[in-house]
Amino acid sequence: MKKVAILGSTGSIGTQTLEVIRSNSAKLRVWSLVAYSNEQKLNSQANEFAPHFTALVSKDGENSLIEAVKGADVAVVATRGITALPAVVYCLKHGIDVALANKEVLVTAGSIVMPLVSRKARILPVDSEHCAISQCLAGKKPDEIAKIILTASGGACYDVTDLTTVTPEIALKHPNWNMGAKITVDSATMVNKAFEVIEASHLFSVPTDKIQVVVHRQSVVHSAVEFVDGSVLMQAAVPDMRLPIQIALLGGHFPSDFKRLNFDEKTSLTFENPDVLRFPCVTFGHDLSHRYPLSATVFNAANDVCVENFLAGKMQFTDFYPTLSKVVDEFEPQYKGTPLTVQNVLDCDKTVKQFTQKLFERCDV
Ligand code: MG
Question: pTM, whole model, 2 decimals?
Answer without folding.
Answer: 0.95
